[in-house]
Amino acid sequence: MDLSVMFFGADDASTVGHATKYEDILAITRAADRLGFTAVWTPERHFQQVGQVFPNPALLSAALAVATERIHVRAGSLVLPLHHPLRVAEDWAVVDNLSRGRAGVSVATGWHSKDFVLAPDGFADRRERAARDIGLLRRLWAGEAVEFTDGTGERVAVTPQPRPYSAALPLWTTTSGSPATWEAAGRLRTNILGATIGQTREELAGKIRLYREAYEAAPEQPGAPARGTVTLMAHTYAGVSDEQARRLAGGPLKAYLKSYVAQTAANNAANKGADGRTDELTDGQLDTLAEFAFQRYLTWGSLLGSAQTCRKSLADLADLGCDEVACFVDFGLGVDEVLAGLHRLAELRENI
To answer: Is the peptide bond before 170 cis (omega within 30 degrees of 0)?
Structure first.
């Protein structure tokens, strides 16, 4: 099984500054590169506390590409309906050249209407746009001239430049858990980026089977591998013992979960035009939900514990059909703890 590093943080950078956060990301990525991790994933987020230092994965991936030697640099995720596919092809071709073929992109549809101030016309049909533009992105990456409307209203054929280093761009579809998205990813013959959070082991096993069956039945797609990669994000800290790992990770992770739940409730209210009551959870209610989620993670779905505990969790995910675990590390731990945890994971990685 492959192990990667996922950044998805929610901590407030106001006390230390965003520049320090970028320094930490670079330090962690360089260490992951030296330790043999497969990839580093950075998300696209706008106007929120969650992921406030990640507005542009292509820009950050370009910096990470020149700071590393072998680790793959991937968007996890890129909100495709916010962008013209030509722009995506151009930006990631730069990353692909800078990294000598280490670029990859997971496509998301977007989840919050406020994000779409960047592309107001793209919100209502964002799922259809994302599915359509995946095929278009593959054609553009392959060097095919595609017609678009220019500034005078005329249709003109354009080929994006620069040309990428790789013949095909590795593509994932991001899912928040819907079985329909797992199946759609299979039909499109993309890899899939999901998470262990919010579902049981049995539910996840069923979704992986659904994806594999859809992928096998789908027609071949340009640049798509014969078998798709299932990548799962899991909150991760490998400690010297279970007790130490849970003691160090417990406070930061519960604070992160509290922030995430509050933001999700507010987003759901905004997207659905609700009356705002879901945005009025009390601190006590948020604390209860965060504690419940944390205790559930200790039972299943996280890499929180000793190296031996993490080994068992990884073996279980491999049995389910997971090919890669994206280790979500920036949920509030200090950079020194994150680096120490990565070293412990690297020691057991070869035996998984």
So the answer is: no
Report whether CATH 3.40.640.10 matches the domain 2-243+302-349: no
Q: Which amino acid is at 139?
A: R
* Contact residues for 254 (Cβ-Cβ < 8 A; gap 6+): 287, 290, 291, 293, 294
Residue 29 bridge partners (DSSP): none
Q: Determine if the pTM surpasses 0.85.
A: yes
**Diameter over CA atoms, the chain:** 65
- Could you tell me the residue ranges of all domains in the chain? 2-243+302-349
Which string of DSSP letters, residue by residue, matches 141-200?
A: HTT--EEEE-TTS-EEEE--SSPPSSSS--EEEE-SS-HHHHHHHHHHT-EEEEESTTS-
Q: 90 CB contacts (<8 Å, ≥6 apart)? A: 160, 161, 162
Q: pLDDT per residue over 174-221, tens digit each?
A: 998 899 999 999 999 999 999 998 889 999 999 999 999 999 999 999
